[in-house]
Amino acid sequence: IIIAVYVTVTNNRRKQNLIIKKLKNGWGKPSQRKYSGEDYECISHYFKRNEDENSIDDITWNDLGMDAVFCMMNNTNSSAGQEYLYKMLRCPNADIQSLKKLDKLASDFDKNAAKRLDIQKIFVWIGRAKHISISDYCDVVVGLEKKSNVLHYASMLFILAAVIFTCTISPVLGIWLCIAAIAFSIITYYKYKAAVDRYFICVNHIVKLLMGAKKITALNIDFLGEYNDKLKNISEELSDITKRSWLLETGNVDGSIAEILLDYLRMLTHVDLIKFNTMIKKIGEKEQEIYRMYEILGHIESSIAVASFRKMVPYWSEPEFVSDTQAGINVSEVYHPLIKEPVSNSLNTKKHLLL
Known about the structure:
The chain is mainly alpha-helical. It has helices spanning about 1-25, 35-50, 60-65, 65-75, 80-90, 95-110, 115-125, 135-140, 150-170, 170-220, 225-235, 240, 255-270, 270-285, 285-310, and strands at about 330-335, 345-350. It has a two-stranded antiparallel sheet. Helix 8 (about 135-140) runs antiparallel to helix 15, helix 10 packs across helix 13 and helix 10 runs parallel beside helix 14. It is elongated.
């Protein structure tokens, strides 16, 4: 046991050190992540859910090579962060107050490296969903119909009755009853588990988002005050979803003795299926709160990506908005961020221009 604990602690410490090293080395550097067509499609789903008349259309987006810009600045580590960042670029925000808040948050993360690393580690822990977006997760789970738990409770009662019969009436016959009860429980478990197994991944990721939100608020970072308050309120509203969520782990995750024992417990008692049926009902009732939490988490991590992007480019400036509709556009020493050695140019025009 001592050796097992030592190995586990050492491996966890090594993993944490590697994560910190990777985060530090990636700060202010272009993202090296590779994307497939399927990745792009999944990342865009949240944007498509929130698309409006001011969004950048596909033709303009592709003409401007914005996929490459997104890839360059996407130093996020979670699905929430990358999907929100993509949506942020596709839906330009012209509200000055909102932009100032984003600017301040990015600047605060730039100035506070230690606190930024703490937040980034949480987003690494939340992780990216594979082959499906967050909005898809919510839609899939919300669309599920809650199943009855009668059979699951019956299998537990069958085992309990068999054990009592063995101990009080007939040990020989009772053993056969126990074997029959265990066989019934395992067969029905895998039958029902096969039908909902893919949805467990969806629910687990939603739970991770909730737990990640709690971890961020627990850090109590001063410049995240407004976001902490919102996340705390949402976490309280969704607290029932995270209770005993450890029951939903699928498979032998880390090979530990505890996880193996839990697997046997799930097979015999169906506790994960019972918990799953309870959770999908609650998730369906709290869909809007889950999306609000997702938006806040995505905004926080996107602001970190913005701060990293500012470090990446040779120089940048804050745009100044004017109310005069005839003012046109006036830029000084502007360049394209994707060009490695750009020649900057200034421009002052009141006419429409395709550059």
